[in-house]
UniProtKB/TrEMBL annotation, chain A:
This is Deferrochelatase. Involved in the recovery of exogenous heme iron. Extracts iron from heme while preserving the protoporphyrin ring intact. Keywords: Heme, Iron, Lyase, Membrane, Metal-binding, Oxidoreductase, Peroxidase, Signal, Transmembrane, Transmembrane helix. The lineage of its organism: Bacteria, Bacillati, Bacillota, Bacilli, Bacillales. The chain crosses the membrane at residues 24-46. The keyword Disulfide bond does not apply. Its EC number is 1.11.1.-. Pfam families: Dyp_perox_C (PF20628), Dyp_perox_N (PF04261). Residues 229-249 are annotated as: Disordered. It comes from the Bacteria. One of its GO terms (biological process) is iron import into cell. NCBIfam families: Dyp_perox_fam, tat_substr_1. Signal peptide: none annotated.
Automatic annotation (TrEMBL), chain B:
It is found in: Cell envelope. Pfam families: Peptidase_M75. Belongs to the EfeM/EfeO family. Keywords: Lipoprotein, Signal. Its main location: other. This is EfeM/EfeO family lipoprotein. GO terms for cellular component: cell envelope.
Length: 430, 293
């Protein structure tokens, strides 16, 4: 009886349409629950749902959606939204079929959530726990993006996929000064959710974790934030918690050639399943805010190699002026110190990464009473070995900023290519 | 944690009526595109009656199980109370956790029957200090004080409460929906206190309760399994698998006839148990809706 609703295709598809009960009642021009008991009532609902969908224009959503389907996954070159919810999972099942089914369910749920729709078919049944947890009902999708990747441990001997591990995808080497805690490291699967609303972002992670129950479990999560669009309507480069602009040196995400060079895995380097995918690096970087806050401005600026207020390179006047690494002061010393962050990150300028980091604040360190805050660094690159690792090696060896930061978490994920409607995330691999 | 059984039942009627009407009219195109007429849910009531008939044998079977557990609970509580009153500390300690398992298997039924749960199973601070009685008060005396002095009255009272529970379950009105929600509630009990070691503060025998709650849920599932399979074989397979996984996880903490102390579990052990429990409770929570009860 109860499952008839899932067997009829036409009906099924109607029931899946993005129409809330409130919408239906409004469409039907009536209110009150008594209506729902009527034998003709559901027909009325179904019909209303269909006609609403036919001239569907969910006004509140317009301009607030980032397409989920596409050649590449969204959330990578998508301009950074205000908030981040990141989750790393460990797979508990030993069967590839379970993992495949999980990604199929996740794909369906992600497609719904990115359009601001409730997930699943059990949201109006009183004798069932609702299939969507509900805290995003009625909210704009808030440009939510959900980006999926798999870590090196995914390619161990559990699923018979070890032969498909990209040579690129391995745990990062130890860098000087790393103080990694397993609380923030690794994961068979990494999911980055970004949205302009924290509740919407949290809702996505929560529901994905729920769907995974029995197959995969959360092993760590991290929330992050930036200034919101409301606080910064002209979308200046965001500032990190040290007060400096962060991301000035990013490549232009609208430049397809630059993205192909920097971000997207190309056919020639393989593996084939990663074409149009990208490698993600996450580093949880704790900032010693208390120490930084008692550091003189001149020292802070020498540390970054930029002016705090304008973001301009030292010796220049505007944020996007060329770095001018050759400039020297009267005493012969470089204007931008040799151990400054901007100089070391830049290297010879031939190699870039796409940074997509968020600030974080996770309460206090119980041992010291100091704030546990900093940067949840996220970068995307075509090659971890050629792009991220050399840069981080330079930084870890000499960056003056190391006096004020410590890397406590680290993970790498191979983010799948995008998916077309009807397909599922990961299908190129599974 | 209190019973919501009656509310669930009426919701079931509503849901069935919705589905029934949904099936009937989905093919129509235009004439139904208007507000519904007043409720005529006679067909829904009929369906519910038929369902109830189908479930009668299952409910009878479950009642037998509840009564059998209660019988054992009375017998073992008698032995426990005797040991307490005789001051036989070690003997009482040995009986304590296994005796309680009979109660933990059927806890939602006891909760549906009034004050039995607070009277038998309240922990310190769950109720006013003056009203605190039952198993956990004796647990504290045994493990914390190491003496049963002054506990005679509490012991006698416990036995009275347990016998009264046994008498009452004879006539308890069990609805099918109670079974479906009860199975999940048993697991929620584990999630709330047992997996964190808060249930058995002094004896550290939480794993016994954990196992018994899971067994109680599995009994209900076993009774409903064939019906569930008719409706949704995939869900049935999933629940089956998850029971297997949690039972394996629990079995790894066996010690002789019983289970290791909660203090012997490592952090990762409790996390694994907790996650296995969530993994089971999630599909199990869909059982009622799939059965249409």
């Amino acid at each position: 009886m109860t499952h008839n609703q899932e067997s009829g295709n036409d009906q099924d598809s109607v029931l899946r349409k993005p129409v809330s009960r409130r919408d239906l009642l409004r469409m039907a021009g009536v209110g009150g629950l008594g209506l729902m008991l009527g034998a003709g009532g559901m027909g009325g609902f179904l019909q209303a749902g269909r006609s609403l969908n036919a001239n569907s224009s969910p006004a509140r959503n317009t301009g607030d959606q980032v397409p989920f389907y596409g050649l590449q996954q969204s959330g990578i070159i998508t301009p950074p939204q205000d908030f981040l919810c990141f989750a790393a999972f460990a797979i508990r099942s030993k069967k590839l079929a379970d993992v495949r089914a999980l990604f199929q369910k996740w794909t369906a749920a992600a497609a719904e959530m990115t359009q601001g729709r409730m997930i699943g078919e059990w949201n109006e049944q009183h004798n069932s726990p609702p299939s969507d947890t509900g805290e995003a009902e009625g909210l704009s999708p808030s440009k939510v993006t959900i980006t999926f990747g798999v870590g090196p441990s995914f390619f161990d001997d559990r699923f018979g996929l070890s032969g498909k591990r990209p040579a690129e995808l391995r745990d990062l080497p130890a860098f000087n000064g790393d103080q990694l805690s397993e609380d923030w490291c690794g994961g068979d699967i990494g999911i980055q959710v970004c949205a302009n609303d924290m509740q919407v972002a949290f809702h996505a992670i929560r529901n994905l974790a729920r769907i995974a129950r029995g197959i995969a479990v959360l092993i760590w999560t991290q929330e992050g934030f930036q200034r919101t669009a409301g606080a910064d309507p002209t979308a200046q480069t965001p500032r990190n918690l040290l007060g400096f602009k962060d991301g000035t040196g990013n490549p232009d995400v609208t430049d397809k050639k630059a993205m192909a060079k920097t971000v997207w895995v190309q056919q020639i380097e393989g593996p084939a399943w990663m074409e149009n995918g990208s490698y993600m690096v996450t580093r949880r970087i704790r900032m010693r805010l208390e120490v930084w806050d008692r550091t003189q401005l001149s020292e802070q600026e020498a540390t970054f190699g930029r002016y705090r207020s304008s973001g301009a390179p030292l010796g220049a006047s505007k944020e996007f002026d060329p770095l001018g690494l050759d400039r020297v002061r009267e005493d012969g010393e470089p204007v931008i110190p040799v151990n400054s962050h901007v100089r070391l990150a830049h290297g010879d300028g031939s190699v870039q990464i796409l940074r997509r980091s968020y600030s974080y604040s996770s309460g206090i360190d119980r041992r010291t009473g100091q704030m546990d805050s900093g940067l949840f660094f996220v970068s995307y690159q075509r090659s971890i070995a050629k792009q991220f690792i050399p840069m981080q090696q330079r930084l870890s060896q000499s960056d003056k900023l190391n006096e004020y930061i410590v890397h406590v978490g680290s993970a790498v994920f191979a983010c799948f290519p995008g998916v077309r409607e009807g397909g599922y995330i990961g299908e190129t691999l599974f | 944690m209190k019973a919501r059984f009656m509310a669930t039942t009426s919701a079931a009627v509503l849901a069935i009526s919705l589905l029934a009407s949904g099936c009937g009219s989905a093919g129509d195109t235009k004439k139904d595109n208007k507000p519904a007429q007043a409720a005529t849910n006679a067909n829904a009531v009929q369906i519910n009656n038929e369902t109830a008939d189908d479930y009668k044998a299952i409910i009878d079977e479950y009642r037998k199980y509840v009564i059998a557990e209660c019988d054992l609970f009375v017998t073992e509580t008698e032995a426990f109370v005797q040991a307490i009153k005789a001051g036989e500390i070690d003997k009482a300690k040995a009986i304590y956790a296994p005796a309680r398992m009979h109660y933990e298997r059927i806890e939602p039924i006891a909760e549906a029957l009034g004050d039995f749960d607070p009277n038998i199973d309240a922990r310190e601070n769950d109720v006013e200090a003056a009203e605190w009685r039952g198993y956990h008060k004796l647990e504290k005396a045994l493990w914390e004080q190491g003496s049963t002095e002054g506990m005679e009255e509490t012991a006698d009272r416990l036995l009275e409460d347990v016998k009264l529970l046994r008498a009452k379950v004879e006539t308890v009105d069990i609805e099918v929906s109670m079974l479906a929600t009860g199975a999940v509630e048993l697991l929620n009990e584990v999630s709330a206190t047992k997996v964190t070691g808060e249930e058995e503060r002094y004896s550290r025998t939480d794993l016994y309760d954990f196992v018994a709650n899971v067994e109680g849920a599995e009994k209900i599932y076993e009774l409903l399994k064939s019906k569930l399979k008719d409706q949704d074989a995939e869900l049935t397979g999933e629940i089956e698998q998850r029971f297997k996984e949690i039972n394996e996880a629990l079995a790894s903490h066996k010690s002789g006839e019983g289970y290791v102390s909660y203090d012997d579990l490592k952090g990762e052990d409790t996390r694994k148990l907790s996650q296995a429990l969530d993994a089971l409770a999630e599909p199990l929570s869909r059982m009622g809706a799939v059965l249409g009860v």
